[in-house]
Amino acid sequence: MKKAAILVLVLLAFLVLSCGKNASSDASFGKSASEDSRKSDRQRFGKTGSPNSAIPVEITFAVRGDISSFLMYSSTLETEQTVNIYSQIAGLVEKLFVEEGQWVEKGQPLLQLEQREYLLAAEKARVAYEKQQADFQRLTALKHKNLLSDEEYDNARLTLKQAELDWKQAELNLDYTIVRSPINGVVGERLVNLGDRIQPSTNLFVISNLAQKVVKVFVPQNEMAKVYRRQPAVITSDVLPEQQFTGWVKRISPIVDAQSGTFKVTVGVKDPRGDLKPGMFVNVQLIVDTHKNTTIIPKAALIYENERSYFFILKNDTATKVLLQRGFEDAEKVEIMNPIAPGTPIVVVGQNGLKDGSRVRVIDIARYPWQQNWPEELAQRFRRTGPRGKPSLPRKPEARGRPRAPETQNPR
Length: 412
What we know:
Blueprint: H1 2-45, E1 55-61, E2 63-86, E3 91-96, E4 103-104, E5 109-113, H2 116-144, H3 150-176, E6 178-180, E7 185-190, E8 197-198, E9 203-220, E10 232-237, E11 240-252, E12 262-269, E13 281-298, E14 303-305, E15 308-315, E16 318-323, E17 326-329, E18 333-336, E19 345-349, E20 360-367, H4 376-385, E21 398-399
Parallel strand pairs: 1-20, 20-21
Antiparallel strand pairs: 1-19, 2-9, 2-13, 3-5, 3-8, 4-7, 5-6, 7-9, 9-12, 10-11, 10-13, 11-12, 13-18, 14-15, 15-16, 17-18
């Protein structure tokens, strides 16, 4: 009994010691969790205890430049000279001299028909002409001796003339066995093969003069007063989004189509490098008016709310929301009538997540090709120091291509 009591006391002591150790561990764990929570809160709220809510954004600068009001239309690019080549005679295609994509000069041979039949016909006509010429010389001698009547002499002369014409026709048909290009241009299509038997109605080639390109657009009749000859134009293509091509109004049709209520305007296109190809779908902007040396910003900066447009300017590290007072605009930029000085930082990326007065952190500066009056000194200083004197941007700004802003019609 005494041994059993001692054993019970030992077990009770062991249990008391174990509980004390576990309580100490729980207290230590609670203390550690509390410290981690406070540390996390300090990282999240900062030293002052307020949320660190600076939003990363990308900016550019308002600049001065030229912008135009325009009428925009879409159509396909054409060449001023495009011809379908036909043969004057029937025959079998014996030789092909050109292929698609090859440049040809006016008068250059394109193909040759089988010539033997036409050679024989030309030789036969020549012989007939020489025989008639010899007969006419004998009859002329008789006429001089008054041994031939005037009627017989006139018939002989006309017969000789007819033989001469038959010979010339046979020679011409022989020359027609070689089909030649009527213009300078590029072979767009070859529609025949060696061995084909062709007729005068058979289309052989399509040749286009790529040096003269035009776009034919159809303008509503209520815009007639805004269109005039030699009016400047800008041509763009989604295939070449980084390029713009200059043009001018070449011809204006005086007839309004009764069904569509439009009239045809032919716009010439300057494309010295040949980047545009016939058949391309292009946009044509007929420039109506131009505002020079005005304040412009990229369309990429705009946000749209309830049929109104806004943008954000940067003051120190705070974004201020501004209602856009719109002037002229095009696919890339918009004129602002707000009293904002050139060089003002404008948010172009990240603005959709901003509110008026939001704190921001600049991570990059965007530069667009049309920003000619770029504030280089301001950009470099801003890049080195950031909005509040802190190092901000790790690299130099790079020029941006045309932004994919929604195209809107200019205010007329």
